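Example for tutorial group B:
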């Protein structure tokens, strides 16, 4: 519990991946993410095997004018007032729930 873990998040695609070093609570100023054109390093890589070569990488910096939770609350309020569309649609939410239900079923953890 006292050791710092790597909490980096990756979004993988067929032509590369996006790496977010601080995904869960990024700083308001100078938050970073990297777009890399290569295959991400495997977590189960055999000892002694070389990591894949990165062909291109670009770092992007993002600044926000408020803390992340304030931005989420503002977006939610705007959607409730009809001033903006929700970031996540009802169909996407139901799709996510169906996937989670299938995962729970596969591992024998079902709610009744």
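The residue assignment follows.
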């Amino acid at each position: 519990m006292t050791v710092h873990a790597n909490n980096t998040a990756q979004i993988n695609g067929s032509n590369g991946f996006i790496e977010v070093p601080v995904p869960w609570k990024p700083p308001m100023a100078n938050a970073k993410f990297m777009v890399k054109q290569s295959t991400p390093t495997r977590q189960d890589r055999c000892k002694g095997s070389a990591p894949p070569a990165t062909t291109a990488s670009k770092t992007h910096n993002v600044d926000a004018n408020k803390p992340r939770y304030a931005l989420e609350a503002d977006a939610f309020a705007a959607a409730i007032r009809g001033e903006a569309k929700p970031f996540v649609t009802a169909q996407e939410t139901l799709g996510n729930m169906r996937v989670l239900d299938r995962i729970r079923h596969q591992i024998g953890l079902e709610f009744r």
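The helical segments are 68-80, 90-106. Compare this with the pattern of hydrophobic and polar residues in the output above.
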